[in-house]
Here is the input.
Amino acid sequence: MTPETHILVLYTGGTLGMVESEQGLVPAGDFDARLRAALEQLPPSRRGRLPAFTLREFPQLIDSSSATPADWHTIASQIADAYDSFDGFVVLQGTDTLAWTASSLAFQLKGTARPVIVSGAQLPLEAEHSDALGNVELALTAAAQPTLNEVVVAFGGQLLRGVCTRKWYTQDHRGFTTPNAPLLGEWVDDRVVLYPGRLMDDQGPAFELPDYARLGKDSIIRLPLYPGISAESVRVQLMRPEVKGAVLELWGSGNLPEDSELLGVLADARGEGKLLAGISQCPHGPVTIGHYAAGAGLATVGVLSGDDMTLEAAFTKLLHLVALDQDEDWQRERFLMPLVGERASGLL
Here is the structure.
């Protein structure tokens, strides 16, 4: 970090900026002043290591549980517009869909040569025993690290590859994890320690910012298997005209019930050009579609392997590829390519 390092902080909403009221936690304004006042409570040695920052508060704060792909596009566009004016970026938001935002930003801001750090908190900034101040300190410090050339989640003293991150706990201060990827860094002795061999190389910005809003709702859906699932229920969800693709959450290493009607529905969807990708319901490990006879039909009808991608990564990648409006062969080829570290096999 140099004395001139300047970070842009986008405050989009979330628990960390809320305050207690008679009705429970509610959004509160003037977050810039409140955050700076909180940072003044840090010991001088730590406060002096923080980079300068400009905070922009979204005029309409986003409830994380109501976030949409259009919101992800708005956040990415603001970063892209300010890219040449700042050395790094911090996005502060609610934790419910924080991993989804991080995954989406990774695809939209592909090749970023500046850190994009996504963070939030389990408790409000002014609450007793809050994790908010520590997470913001971590995020600001990480955003000033010139070797972080990717989207990173900063939470609970850990730096996690954004596109591999999942929310793991509802209340624990280490609320997020990367089930199939190692930590990129940690907060040790009041400093950020990075693990260089795990970081993305600087490939140069190749941003892709298609308008997600034009896709409308349900362009990509998720279809988790459950015991007794019927072909008709899958057909009702999958064959709607607005649906362009789906993430199939399969059993184990990529298995499907032995049901010819169900496989026929997937074949019909593929015949209409819908993109289908399969991931495992197990949080750890990849799918290997076709390894077992129970999953062989998936490969036959053209279901793409999501390898060990998280649900968030597979969903946001499908959405991103569909929004780019290229032909089906291109979309299928790009889905199978590792673009931003989303396929983590072999890293652990």
User: Anything to note?
Assistant: The chain has a mean pLDDT of 94.
